[in-house]
Specification:
heterotrimer, A alpha/beta (about 450), B alpha+beta (about 300), C alpha/beta (about 230), B: about 300 residues, alpha+beta, seven-stranded antiparallel sheet, C: about 230 residues, alpha/beta, elongated
């Protein structure tokens, strides 16, 4: 390639029309259709990295890492369910459909999560025998499309998640391109083979919190009031949405920030709709505190850009009871790994950049329905990698919590944090480090 | 996000029982709106001591239970040169006076901005409070009220605060009231549009108050309530079921997508409207009623015009 | 003895029984048991989640989600039904003598749903295999994104019929408003006439199959294409 060299210094790049922007205008002019891709928001956003913990020193006392326990479990569904979920760690696997993911990937997620005592979640395609079989705790999603929805699977589930939106596309519906609609996927979804499938953005039989309340009652009636009912929203007007989800009867509110991933969505949606996870956690926790339910009968799960134990601990400190991971879990299974560089190059991409999860030609065998590619993912080995990763997240979160003197993760609080940037201070309502100043709250 | 109940009596013989028939309807909508409730009752046109046909009524609210309503009535009377009577109902006061309600409303907005004007008109009275509908109905003795029609609302607040003034129904012009189930998507723009056009004053951040203000504006241009609602189909965006009351009329409108529920029932004696059938289920004669779901984007009206 | 018990219909009065108790009774009833539900008065989620061929007659109007996710139950409503009648039904029979509100039969997978009166908007939305027969007319956007199964309408259909339709077949006797995107009239071939004849017979609705027209998907929207942008 001859144009590998940096351009001469006298050529001034435009900050506005940068190389990616110019490339996208050229692509749009050529193809006449918006850009669809997977992954989450890629641009820099205020995030948990902009916060730090105030570890114990003289005024507070830390716990010994190897002798003094730091609890990590969380119980979900105590409000209305006769069979609440008891997770050993506050990190769960977010909903990702069979269809979007291969059966082996779903099995690997189940194996990894079960090994460490946490749950996985179905997605916009119904429940497969593989994931039910390999997930000790499985959350069954009720989505607008209702693909594969049936009362038998509903009864087999350990919890029900009513999905209103997701962080990558609040207000939008799902998408699955024809390349990924195998015969099995089509049959599970009652779709013709070889279509570009669009899912609805609203539920077919209710709209708004007053009707959602009736819907939740119906789901409880069908399942004998046993199962926790989650309500999942993409982060936008999060304070109000959380209040309304609780008023409608949710046991658990799931808030997915704009960094949350997706299998296939318009790029303009991924990058331009929704608010970052950082303010979303704080807003949701504020709503639960106002209702007197925070750290109580209603639990808050937060997702969107959780990568390490520090993210987990900070989300919990800001008010989450647990977090969900999707993108990070796929990376743990083997997505975007350097060993696949040659395969990625053939697809015009590279390790660390691969986001064509919608195309179905994933060399890692994760976001595909191609039997040959799928075989590349060993569900047992993948599950072990995921379990390892979840253990690391937990150990890291415990390390930080112990340093703050906590014998349980859920005792982390916003006052254990300081912000490094004015933006993060304003969004998380945490003081700028070294000050007692929270923007918007005066001096 | 809410529950709606409305009852319009066609036979005068039923009027003494309006509150008794209407109260159970609203109670049945409690689950749809546990935050607050409000009731608009149309009754007693022209009932004042002097028998003045231009008798007007103002329902007012102040957060302070010890508020000096007599002092307010005195000042208003002195300023307008009229006699003003005060009737206390729980946290509300009902002022009886003569003259144009709009003038009295304008004086209150200018001189006593701390007082919330729940309604102004000749026959309309509005009462609203935070809390469960059953308690609010009792507090204002609604089951004992006689009248020609009533509209009520139970509220599950969406984006504006749970306050007494944020509860429905909203009254923005003489004898007009509106309740709403749904969520508008362009109300900030419509509000600015109305504010540029003069005397529209809003007391809350509520989208439904904007819808009421919009109808009042169209009525002030000379439109009938049915015409005003037709125009709303073009100008108001979002999801809504509206129930609207006027001095002698009752109307219902759902947006063209019509996701928010509504049921209508009609007999020779009454017209009932509610978010769900269960609110209507125990009305006398319901077995013989015509029961139907209002069609999307179609204005239904009874009474005036 | 058992047969005699099953033949007699047991009355369950919702003025004395909670909805939760009613559903528990119906869900746990043996195959062939028969019940009559009194005073439904628009209550929600009545006779939901049935898993066996149990006969249930509801005497009066019902609220949201009556017969929701029905899997084998034979449920009759002597009155009108609220939103989401027989939503996500799997198998069995649901019959309403009056009208049904919006989203009747939404995402239903199997069985037969008969609405003798009219159905409101979005009847058969997201349909996945259920057969719906409506004696009267249907509201706008009926069979929206419907994937499989049939929707038979003896009256008229409001605008948006069959919008973004997949493989559901629509049989319409009356007039259609403006058709939804990708919905087109198709030839009524002998196999369609046979299917419609059978549907009407099973629904117990006297109508001449020859009076109906068939609508289906033009399949133009099955793949994203630049030329289809106006339809999305």
């Amino acid at each position: 390639m001859s144009h590998d060299r940096s351009p001469p210094a006298h050529l001034r790049p435009s900050a506005l029309f940068d190389a990616a922007t110019i490339h996208e205008i050229q692509r749009a002019a050529r193809e006449g259709l918006y850009k669809i891709r997977g992954f989450g928001a890629k641009r820099a956003l205020p995030h948990f990295d902009d916060l730090v913990f105030l570890g114990a020193s003289v005024s507070r006392y830390p716990l010994e890492g190897y002798r003094e326990r730091c609890g990590t479990d969380v119980i979900l569904g105590e409000r209305h369910a006769s069979k609440p979920l008891h997770l050993q760690i506050p990190i769960t696997i977010a909903g990702m459909s069979f269809g979007s993911l291969s059966a082996n990937a779903k099995e690997a997620l189940g194996r990894g999560a079960s090994a460490v005592g946490t749950s996985t979640t179905t997605g916009d395609g119904g429940m497969t025998a593989e994931e039910r079989g390999h997930s000790n705790l499985l959350v069954y999603q009720l989505l607008p499309s209702r693909y594969g929805m049936n009362p038998e699977d509903l009864r087999k589930a350990d919890a029900i998640e009513v999905v209103i939106g997701q962080g990558a596309k609040p207000g939008g519906g799902g998408m699955l391109l024809g390349q990924k609609i195998s015969d099995r996927v089509a049959d599970m979804r009652s779709l013709p083979h070889d279509v570009d499938q669009r899912s609805a953005c609203r539920h077919p039989d209710w709209t708004g919190p007053d009707d959602l309340e009736i819907k939740i009652q119906e789901l409880r009636e069908i399942t004998g009031w046993e199962k926790p009912v989650y309500v999942k929203v993409g982060a936008t007007r999060t304070y109000y949405d959380t209040l309304l989800a609780v008023k409608a009867g949710a046991d658990v509110v799931v808030v997915d920030g704009m960094q949350g991933g997706t299998g296939a969505t318009q790029e303009c949606f991924i990058e331009h709709v929704g608010i970052p996870t950082l303010p979303a956690v704080r807003l949701a926790a504020e709503a639960l505190r106002e209702l007197g339910l925070h750290r109580g009968a209603v639990k808050l799960i937060v997702s969107g850009g959780i990568r390490n134990g520090a993210d987990v601990a900070k989300a919990v400190a800001l008010g989450a009871d647990a977090v969900s991971i999707g993108t990070a879990a796929l990376i743990a299974l083997g997505d975007n790994r350097p060993e696949l560089a040659e395969d990625y190059a053939k697809l015009g991409t590279a390790p660390g950049y691969y986001d064509d999860w919608h195309l179905g030609n994933d060399p890692a065998g994760i976001t595909t329905q191609d039997p040959d590619l799928e075989r590349r993912l060993d569900p047992v080995a993948g599950g072990e990698r995921l379990a390892n990763y979840l253990r690391v997240l937990t150990l890291e979160a415990q390390t930080l919590a112990r340093a703050c003197g906590k014998s349980h993760l859920h005792n982390l609080e916003p006052e254990d944090l300081a912000a490094l940037t004015v933006e993060a201070a304003a969004m998380a309502k945490v003081p700028l480090a070294g000050t007692d100043w929270i923007p918007g709250q005066g001096y | 996000m809410c529950g709606i109940a409305g009852l319009f009596l066609k036979t005068p013989e039923l009027q003494p029982k309006l509150g008794a028939l209407f109260s159970p309807m609203l109670r049945e909508m409690s689950e749809r709106g546990p935050d607050s409730a409000g009731i608009a009752v149309y009754r007693d046109v022209g009932r004042n001591a002097a028998g003045d046909p231009r008798h007007c009524k103002l329902s007012l609210y102040h957060a302070d239970p010890a508020f000096d309503w007599d002092g307010l009535a005195h000042d208003l009377g002195a300023a307008a040169g009229i006699a003003v009577e005060v009737e206390r109902l729980a946290s509300h006061a009902l002022l009886h006076a003569t003259g144009a309600p709009a003038k009295l409303r304008a004086w209150l907005l200018a001189e006593r901005p701390e007082v919330r004007i729940m309604s102004a008109g000749h026959s309309l009275e509005i009462y609203k409070e935070i809390g469960l509908p059953a308690a609010i109905l009792e507090r204002f003795a609604v089951p004992q009220m006689a009248g020609s029609h009533a509209i009520g609302h139970t509220r599950m607040a969406t984006e504006s605060a749970v306050t007494t003034e944020g509860a429905h129904p909203f009254n923005t012009g003489d004898d007009l009231c509106l309740v709403h189930n749904g969520s508008l998507s362009n109300h900030h723009q419509v509000k600015r549009w109305l504010q540029r056009r003069g005397d529209a004053r809003f007391q809350t951040e509520n989208d439904s108050e904007v819808a009421a203000g919009y109808l009042t504006y169209r009525l002030s241009e000379g439109a009938s309530i049915a015409e005003a609602l037709e125009a709303a189909l073009t100008d108001l965006d979002g999801f809504y079921t509206f129930a609207v009351g006027t001095g002698d009329g009752f109307a219902v409108l759902r947006d063209p997508i019509a996701c928010k529920p509504a049921v209508l029932a009609e007999t020779d004696d009454w017209v009932a409207m509610a978010s769900e059938f269960r609110a209507i289920a125990r009305l006398p004669g319901v077995e013989q009623a015509r029961v139907w779901e209002p069609a999307p984007g179609q204005v239904y009206s009874w009474g005036s015009e | 003895m058992k047969a005699a018990l099953a033949a007699a219909s047991e009355a369950l009065d919702l003025d004395r029984l909670e909805v939760r108790d009613l559903n528990r009774r119906l869900q746990g009833a043996e195959t062939g048991a028969a019940f009559e539900v009194l005073n439904p008065l628009g209550r929600h989620s009545l006779a939901v989640g049935l898993r066996r061929p149990v006969e249930v007659t509801l005497r009066g109007h019902v609220g949201y989600y009556c017969a929701g996710m029905n899997d084998g139950g034979r449920i009759a409503v002597a009155g009108n039904a609220g939103t989401g009648l027989a939503e996500n039904m799997m198998s069995g029979l649901v019959r309403v003598t009056g009208d049904a509100s919006q989203s009747a039969g939404a995402s239903g997978h199997g069985g037969l749903l008969v609405i003798e009166g009219n159905a409101a908007a979005r009847c058969g939305i997201s349909l996945k295999g259920l057969d719906i027969v409506v004696g009267g007319s249907v509201g706008h956007n009926s069979a929206f994104m419907a994937q499989a199964g049939t929707l038979t309408i003896c009256g008229d259909a409001e605008a948006g019929l069959g919008d973004s339709l997949y493989e559901t077949r629509i049989y319409l006797r009356g007039q259609a408003g403006e058709l939804g995107a990708d919905c087109v009239e198709k030839e009524m071939r002998p196999e369609h006439l046979a299917q419609l004849t059978d549907l009407l017979a099973r629904a117990g609705i006297a109508a001449d199959p020859a009076d109906f027209r068939r609508y289906g998907s033009a399949r133009e929207l099955y793949r994203f294409r630049v030329s289809n942008l106006g339809a999305y």
